[in-house]
Amino acid sequence: MYVLGISRHHDAAAALVRDGEIVAFAEQERFSRAKHDGRFPTDAIRFCLEQGGITLADVDHVAYFWQRWREPLHAAKVFARYFPATLEVFRNEGDQGARASGLVETFRTGGKGVDNFHVGGAVLGHVKRGYTLGRDVREALGFTGQVKYKVHLVDHHRAHAASTFFISPWDEAAILTLDGIGSDGTSTFLAVGKGDRITDLRRFKFPHSLGAMYAGVTNYLGFYPTMDEGKVMGLAPFGRDTYVEQFKDLVYLADDGGYELNLDWFRHHTSGRHLMSQKFIDLFGPPRERTKVTADNPISQHYMDIAYALQVRLEEVGLHLARWLHDRTGLTKLCVAGGVALNSVMNGRIFLETPFEDFFAQPAAADDGSSLGAALAVSVGKYGRPRPVDGFMYTGPEFAEERMEQALQDAGLAYRRVDDIAAHTAKRIADGLIVGWFQGRMECGPRALGNRSLLADPRDPESKTRMNEKVKHREAFRPFAPSCLVERAGDYFASGYPSAVMLLVFDVLADKRDVVPAITHVDGTARVQTVSRDDNPLYWDMISHFEKLTGVPMVLNTSFNDNNEPIVCTPEDAVACFRKTDVDALALGPFWVEK
């Protein structure tokens, strides 16, 4: 049984599930090269079908990440209560209309969608999509044959829940999903998963949204909401506790384990743009101008302190919810998903400071992953097909050596084939080179997991500076992650717990911080990726060679892309990024290029 899962809003994506196997899953942006692409995921769908060797005629079910049946009533209530200027939506088209109407701010279309539906923004778009999805898929692919598939509309947060629990290694676990807003207004969802069933326990609804709260302050800090929250998380450790007490008033923590936003601080009840209220501005001052952060235009300490207070409050709410969930269920295993679950600092505290003993997050925790979740909600939850047992990290395209070599030849690059690319790459990283590493199937999610990565020596403090300034062209305050052999993680970090998808932050042990300064953030932490031989044998082999050369069982790892572009997908993407940045060398499959 083939189930095609689709998400569209921001980070549009598609997934194909065949019984208990994830055949393919990828984000639309990787093919269109428009970051956070929210258009209909035509290219991602086409890839999934090609990877499965099928056409639309073979698809049994199409699952969409947003439910229709409650949506019209909910949309009317939300627009009536929170958006007095709703009529402006119908005077705008494309990105402008989306920004004017989006419940959780912008859904970036990057241009016109497949069906030319531009007015009404995210929610009205989802309502309409529920009635036209079957047709939209056929038209997007230009498919004129007969189809047999049945369309399923899946509750958004249950799609998030399915995306993490159904691929977790456990038969029973507590589930926590957090984001901006879902199909019935849900922003936070607490549940229990057992076998092929997910049972609701509790929901918190918009406007009481942790995702919206974080997005509002992200916007206040001069970054782009729903896109730059990771920057704010990286900025927070530079702050002081100046405003921590004041930020407690943003979110009330209830004795019954719940929470409620103080809406006096927010303007998402009068605007769809995640603005903070005049009360907030009167207390904390005017928003930071949205200008590029450079050495000549740094972020002032005041705004760093705001970021710190925001991050602390989010962590406190996350801990509060997780403790209630543990008390209610008595379970020791926790699965998380949703855009807020990309906050790896919060995740690390939940794992270390609550009674949960095991933690699982899927790499594409945000809305892109809900395409996979929708497919699994139908395949596993509705029809009782087996749960996938592996294969949830490297789900994208892979390319033959002939394609890689042709890309190098077309670019006019001098290259050579290396017998042992892992050993050779480790040696050149130890020599101080920054290497583009392109191997196997592309990983899913926003974090590079060792198949589309830029790698450097974690021992050299200049690795971080050079990577930020000369390669990634991004803000100097942003940290880099270590890819560490799983069997050695406990020797360097406060926890050796497996963290294969880079969604847990742990302290770097005090006596190791000077050993690996390039991956140690200003607060002494690191967002750890543990690498096992089973998950990625070639990447594990390369890091093992680096350990033999240096005694350090890790490399610095960041996504293979320039700033403001998606992670590279094809050999041609990798060659283009290599040529336009100060990357020193490229390991493209077995081929080696060095500047």
TrEMBL record:
Which residue range or ranges hold the Carbamoyltransferase C-terminal domain? 426-595
Q: Of which family is this protein a member? A: Belongs to the NodU/CmcH family.
The residues covered by the Carbamoyltransferase domain are 3-376
Supply the name of the protein.
Answer: Carbamoyltransferase
Query: Which PANTHER family does the UniProt record give?
Result: NODULATION PROTEIN U
